[in-house]
Amino acid sequence: MKFLTTTLAGLLASAALATAAAAECEMTLRSSDTHPDGYPTVEGVKAMAEEVKEKTEGRICIEVFPSAQLGEEKDTIEQTQFGVIDMVRASFGTFNDIVPVTQLFSLPYLFRSEEHMHNVLDGPIGEEVGAKFEEHDLVALAYYDGGARSFYNSQKPIESIEDLAGMKFRVMQNDVFVDMMDALGANATPMPYGEVYSAIQTGVIDGAENNYPSYDSSGHAEVAKYFTLDQHLMVPELVAVSKMTWDKLSPEDQEIMREAARNSADLQRQLWADQEAASEEKVVEAGSEVIKEIDKTPFIEAMVPVYEKYVTTPEDQDLVKRIQETE
């Protein structure tokens, strides 16, 4: 009984402290993330929250809800549009049906490297794309790094485009991905992510494609020992705030939010790079062979029909051209 009384007292004390902390804030913003606590995107928004609270002297607080506590990405984007929640972190891919320009960022080999992607998003193009979100009741605050997807397989090292000929790779159920594999001379096999391990193990497919941390955490490195760092897809992550919430802020507080978001992006990108490096080290130690020295030019040139199919308007063609020309 004494233990229960002590535990209850502790819980009540914690609740009282949380209530007191919330009472100090004139405005508390709720931010959603589907990733678990400790994930780079979650830690990025937490860092933003700390900076905002400090610079507003505790007037504005941001409470981060990880692990899809407020819903999956598509649902939380809609909730943010309607002001039900205040902020959301989501992949560009989830915005495709809402902000059409985001579809271009699913084009294969659009970015030459992660550094190239950062340079594009941190410059005039990033501002231009961000402005498109306001038309849909969202204010883009920061672009996070979602990593680069590369090919891995159980059969052989992929060192050239010719090595892909006839191989079977699992891809997401997406027409662009299917067309990409066709253009590379390989066979696309859409299937649920959870079935990939056994499909590679039993030879139903030869491999799949994803980033280092996913290749590691899924266990796919156990059955597909050859990882080719071709980085064919880099889809940014976005931190956005509801325009309804944004309009309640003073211009000074809006600038504090923007600056804190930009600073959090630097942290998030470093945390992601650290996570990639740790995963690479782990899979290499476990016996994976990582192929880095490949000529991407033939891979990129093979995408011409894919771009012709999906980049059809003069506006989109101009944007893709400017992205490719960015140093």
From the structure above, extract its key features.
single chain, 327 residues, alpha/beta, D-Maltodextrin-Binding Protein, domain 2, 2 domains, 5-stranded mixed sheet, 4-stranded mixed sheet, 13 helices, 11 strands, 18% strand, disordered N terminus, TRAP transporter substrate-binding protein
Strand order of the largest sheet: 2-1-3-10-4
* Rg from alpha-carbon coordinates: 22 Å
Domains (count): 2
In this structure, how is the largest beta sheet organized?
A: 5 strands, mixed
Pfam family, one: DctP
Main location: periplasm
GO molecular function, one term: carbohydrate binding
Keywords: Periplasm, Signal
Helix/strand layout:
Elements: H1 2-24, E1 27-32, H2 40-55, E2 60-65, H3 73-81, E3 87-91, H4 114-121, H5 124-134, E4 138-144, E5 148-153, E6 168-171, H6 175-183, E7 187-190, H7 196-201, E8 207-210, H8 212-217, E9 226-234, E10 237-242, H9 243-246, H10 251-285, E11 289-291, H11 297-301, H12 304-310, H13 314-325
Parallel strand pairs: 1-2, 1-3, 6-7, 9-11
Antiparallel strand pairs: 3-10, 4-10, 5-8, 5-9
Helix pairs in contact: 2-10
GO molecular function: carbohydrate binding
InterPro entries: DctP_fam, TRAP_DctP, TRAP_DctP_sf
Keywords: Periplasm, Signal
